[in-house]
Amino acid sequence: MNTSTLLIVFLALGFGYLLYEKMKKGEGKESENKLMLDVVEKLRTDLRSGLDKNTENVQGRLDETLKLLNQQFHNSQKSLDRRLDANTKVLNERLDGAAKVIGSVKEELGRMKEVGDQIKNLQDFLRAPKLRGNLGEQVMNDLIQQCLPQESYQFQYSFRSGDIVDAVIITNNGMIPIDAKFPLDNYRKIINTEDLEKKEKAAKDFRKDVKKHINDINKKYIKPDEDTLDFALMYVPADSVYFEIVINDEEISMHAQEKKVHIVSPNSFYYFLKVILIAFQSQKFEESAKQVLGLISGIKKESEKFGDTLSVLGKHVTNAKVKMDEVQSDYLNLDSKITQVSTLHAPKERKPKKITEVKKEASARAETQEESISLPI
Prior knowledge:
Layout: H1 3-25, H2 30-126, H3 129-147, E1 153-158, E2 164-170, E3 175-179, H4 185-192, H5 196-221, E4 232-235, H6 239-246, H7 250-258, E5 261-264, H8 266-345, H9 355-371
Parallel strand pairs: 3-4, 4-5
Antiparallel strand pairs: 1-2, 2-3
Helix pairs in contact: 1-2, 3-8, 4-5, 8-9
């Protein structure tokens, strides 16, 4: 409602109240009553008209508001639908990615199971002592082939006794025997056994195996009478076993030193081979240096011979030059005398030769004389 409508309503209410008071007191007249009724009717008509207009205005505003609300709701619904679609798409993509990841994980689990089975098969395969020794021997052979020249080693070398060592390194001072067959059965029991009593027994048996193997290497392969050095190498195929022997068991290390058996792991054996390679290279360098010194000595001798020959040639050239100067001087004297004689007997005066012409003739004669000289070169 607007201000005018409210004012009309209040006036009507006030007028009605006054009319009610007058009617109550009985003081009104018939004409006045009629007038009052007309006024009331007019006010009612105006009030109804104002109310209709206000109702139309309110209805219009309500329609606009409803339309605006509908539009906003429609826009919000569209935005919400777009967000829902985007979120649904992202969720579907993530679900697809998760499904792929789960599929990949399943495949990897299957592969890991296959690898586990293969490792188990390999462990079963390596349980046979001979096969395990062959594998360690192959690794050792690969290291030797990668580090040393082919002529400096030999595999499966046989002694006169019939014993065969896995490899020997050939040096100028003798051969270095290398054994790669190492006992690992009791060491495996040490690792896999949880019972302390069984673990101690396995450790004791392992020490016995290692000492026995050291004794066998000393007896079979260290043979200076067959051109070996006074020591041999015991190749341990795993660094963990090497540390168990060398670091944790001083008794075995001392026993190996007494028997002149050097214990090596894959890493220490690699550095040992590098030292051997450096020694071979130094030896080759020394031989090359001797050859170079021999060549230099020969060049020096040839240079001395050439110097002697050059000295003789220089002497001959010097003598030839002296002779040429003497011949030139004699020729000039002779020419001067001939000129004098010609002047006395000839009626006409003869022109003397120019000094340049005389020098040319003397040089030509000197060259002819040099050609006739034999040089002892």
